[in-house]
Amino acid sequence: MTRKRLGLKFYGIVQGVGFRPFIYRTARARNLAGFVKNLSDSVLVEIEGDESAIEHFLDSLDTHLPPLAVIERATRKELPLQQDTTFKIEASEKSAAIPVHISPDIATCDDCLAELFDPDDRRYLYPFINCTNCGPRFTIIYDIPYDRENTTMAVFEMCEACRKEYEDPLNRRFHAEPIACPHCGPRLALLNRDGTGIKTQDPLAQCAERLARGEILAIKGLGGFHLAADATRADVVAKLRERKRRGEKAFALMVRNLEDIEKIAHVGETEWEILTSPQCPIVLLRKKRNRIIADNVAPGLAAYGIMLPYTPLHHLLLDKIPYLIMTSGNQRDEPICIANREALTNLGGIADAFLTHDRGIRLRCDDSIAMSLNGKMTILRRSRGFAPAPLKLHKKFDPPVLALGAHLKNTICLLKDDFAFLSPHIGDLETPKARDYLRQSIRLMEKITETTPGIVACDLHPSYFTHRLAEDLAGERNIPWINVQHHHAHVVSCMAEKGIKDYVIGFSFDGTGYGLDGKIWGGETLIADTKNFERVYHLRNFPLAGGERAIQEPWRIGLALLMDSLPEDWEGNAVKLGLAEPGALAPVASVLQKRLNTVEASSMGRLFDGVSAILGCRKVISYEGQGAMELEAICQKSTGVSLHFSRSGNEFDYRPLIRDIVDLKLSGESAGKIAYAFHRAIADLVRDTAQRIRDERKLDRVVLTGGCFQNKILTELSSRLLRSEGFTVLAHENIPCNDGGISLGQAVIAAEKGEWNGNGR
Ligand SMILES: [Zn+2]
Ligand SMILES: [Zn+2]
Ligand SMILES: [Zn+2]
């Protein structure tokens, strides 16, 4: 037998996730000696013993890692023997700043769930059960290191039984900072709208009863409040819509278990995996015809957004009522409420009662949203369960960058060394509260990632709030500030996710982004790398009458498209199509003709809106993207109808396509078949354009990015056509293709440019 001693260092998410006890147990099981210890940036292990036992030990690092641990990198070297006889967990060094990489919050694990429903367990039915493998993390942190005294759990003194578990390296709750039990931990309370307590032995049962009676409850969760309501009753859903002033936008559902989900939606293999993952996001699932869910939950759409219960409280509640609407507890356009008083003030007009508790939420975190695209999990909103887990980049950058993201679906990104940290979803920056929340997020993210940015990046749009904020921050901190074009940021966001820096063909299709020429872009084909881009093709411009108003009333876009495509007879066709009341047409047409109060747009998202209006699918919308989403929902696959763009110079010309759509519609062809052909025409355009560029420029990697690629039909069709021609398709998975992913692209572009400037070239 050969005796050996190895020194190992592990980097990544390795602290506060049960990594040390795992090392301890594994080493002991193999009769190895040595120690494990947290350092400021890593975990240090020294291991001594029989060589083959050490090999087995190393193997189990690959196969048996605790579920939340992520080893980003490891180093290893041989050391002189010390003749240790036992294996120990050594105290962290005093100066050790615990994790640079803080774990996201994680859904209740199977072990905790089994205890939750075990009458003999001391945490039976306790709504705050957790362990090192699950529970709150990111949302309860004040500061690093991640120790109990730096979390909102600091106010709860551990009872003796909990402390014993907390201190026992062999226990599943060894150093589980949010450890709690019914004797020493947080408790539930049920409150009236005015904040007075409702007397009850069992707040949770009382809450379920009220929900079943048709009341709307505000429920404090992991990253904020939800508004909950019975999803099976149309009258309750209508009441929630009215009180929340929410027109037709779909509500997310929380459903008791997979069996109950399968009664209302189709669940494929990838979707099943996403639903049951430790991140437990909302998953978009194709609806089944059912008589369970009220029709007004997700009107006009092909899919429901569904999640499983992810906290013990949810499990206990859903056990009593299987289908709930669980929508963000906020006023329109404002951030989700996290504090009890804040919730009472802001949600008092919406909720009938409040189920709350005394474990504080420090950081807001909305539910994440994901779907299956091309058979892969694709994140559309990256928040709870994912933030602030970092993304590894293709190289190290210096100095660090703060990127402020887009105006809608805002997130921020901090780039440090070779990691990018995206914040949770901040939202649309339309209200003062949302803007305050952005400022607060910057401070918190800088603190927990220990980053001092040397560059600030923002969108090119001069009137965006983020643009002004970037200027202010750059002034205050005396650092440079870099503007990044919106669609370039989209492309680079996808490249960064895939670890690519060299030139690609990028299709950046979305609703709105400020162009270099001051017009609205959104149907762009770029040749881009992580520093620069060239706009090689774009959708033909069309005018948006009344600017923002055209977005709310897509029939205005439909009219602009008709006037451009059928200059001789747009009026007769608009009337025959019933595009708008005849009286409404003339004034808008005159605005369009004179180009008064109009902006030019080459936006693919707006083209979807216009086509949706022409087909009679959606003439006025009540939420962003509604036209396009409903157009996708009515698609009927057919090969009988085909549509085509033409190309003039570097423009995609939609005019022949619009003329054909009008002819088909007026000759009685089904809107569903035309809608499908429209999707197919864009996919054909993507393939043909990529082929052209490949012929000239010898590029064969294609990025599909921008909000339009949340459209399943468009993305899967385009990917299939491109692959069949031998292209490598790069589509988003971890980072949203919509504006939620913009901050990453901005950060990487600014970092590249910053380095470039720094080198004095
Ligand atoms: Zn657990
Ligand atoms: Zn306890
Ligand atoms: Zn965009």
| Discrete helix count | 23
Number of strands: 28
> Uncertain spans, ≥5 residues at pLDDT below 50?
95-99
Which fold does the CATH topology of the largest domain refer to?
Nucleotidyltransferase, domain 5
Query: Quick one: overall form?
Result: globular
Strand order of the largest sheet: 6-13-7-8-12-9-11-10-14-15
Major beta-sheet overview: 10 strands, mixed
Gyration radius, rounded: 27 Å
N→C terminal distance: 59 Å
Strand content: 15-25%
CATH class membership of the largest domain: Alpha Beta
The domain tally reads 4
Give the SSE layout.
Blueprint: E1 3-13, H1 19-29, E2 33-38, E3 43-50, H2 51-63, E4 70-79, E5 87-89, H3 110-116, H4 160-167, E6 188-192, H5 203-212, E7 217-220, E8 225-230, H6 234-244, E9 253-255, H7 258-262, H8 269-275, E10 282-286, E11 303-307, H9 312-318, E12 323-328, H10 340-347, E13 353-357, E14 369-373, E15 376-381, E16 391-403, E17 413-422, H11 432-448, E18 455-459, H12 465-477, E19 481-484, H13 486-498, E20 504-514, E21 520-528, E22 533-539, E23 542-545, H14 548-552, H15 555-565, H16 570-577, H17 582-594, E24 598-603, H18 604-614, H19 626-634, E25 646-648, E26 651-653, H20 655-666, H21 671-697, E27 701-705, H22 712-724, E28 728-731, H23 742-758
The site of one zinc ion has 7 residues, from helix 13 and strand 20.
